[in-house]
Structures are given as C-alpha cells and as structure tokens.
Amino acid sequence: MKQTNNGAEIEAIVKTISILKKRGLRKVRINTDSKFAIDGYLNWLPKWNKNGWKTNRRKTVVSKEIFNKLSDNITGIKVELIYEPGHSGIKGNEEADSLAKIAIE
Questions:
Q1: Burial (Cβ within 10 Å: 0-12, 13-18, ≥19) of residue 2
Q2: What does the CA dihedral 16, 20, 22, 27 come to, rounded to 10 degrees?
Q3: Dihedral Cα 2, 67, 36, 58, nearest 10 deg
Q4: pTM of the full predicted structure?
Q5: What integer best gives the mean pLDDT of the chain?
Q6: How confident is the model over 91-105, as pLDDT tens digits?
Q7: DSSP states along 44-83
Q8: Second label for 25, Cα 20 to 30 Å away, from 13, 58, 66, 77?
C-alpha cells in the first residue's frame, strides 16, 4: 500500500494501542489531528467489518490493510480518539509534527 499521511496517522494509533496493551492498559484516550482516523474508527470500520470491507458503492476499501490492522488491535481495549486541530499551538501536536519532520529527513 502506498504510504500516505492518513496511513501514517493510523499506523501511529495502531502502534500506540499495541504498546499500551502490552503494558496491561485496557482503556486509552488518544489525541489526533486526523479526522480521517477518527471517522474511520468510529463510523466506517464497523460498517466495513459487517459488509466484507466494501464501500457503499460495493468497491473494496482502499485503506483496508491499515484499518484491518487497527481493527485487529482494538480487541480487548477501549479506545477513545479525540480530535485536536493540527498546527494550532497545542504542545503535544507540535512536538509530534516536529518528530515526523525529523523522521522524514
């Protein structure tokens, strides 16, 4: 699958959940500036799981691979995703953006 910003956002959520589950946590709140990740998790993922990973137009979900990883990882843990606008001066968001830029370089 082609790497995209949305895919990277979801991959970060998957990794976070995986680490926290290994530490025994069963409830987590994750702040993200990705409306795509939030909508996917709350609205689309349950529908895709029910209808065999097809969109409303009966096409295969393009981001199936990454959302499937998310679906597999959320078993056994309660996840709350909170929207936090990007590039708005929120310390954690700004630090995450800085780390992402360093990783690209």
A1: exposed
A2: -130
A3: 90
A4: 0.79
A5: 85
A6: 776 777 777 677 667
A7: IHHHHHHTTSB-TTSPBPTTHHHHHHHHHHTTTSEEEEEE
A8: 66
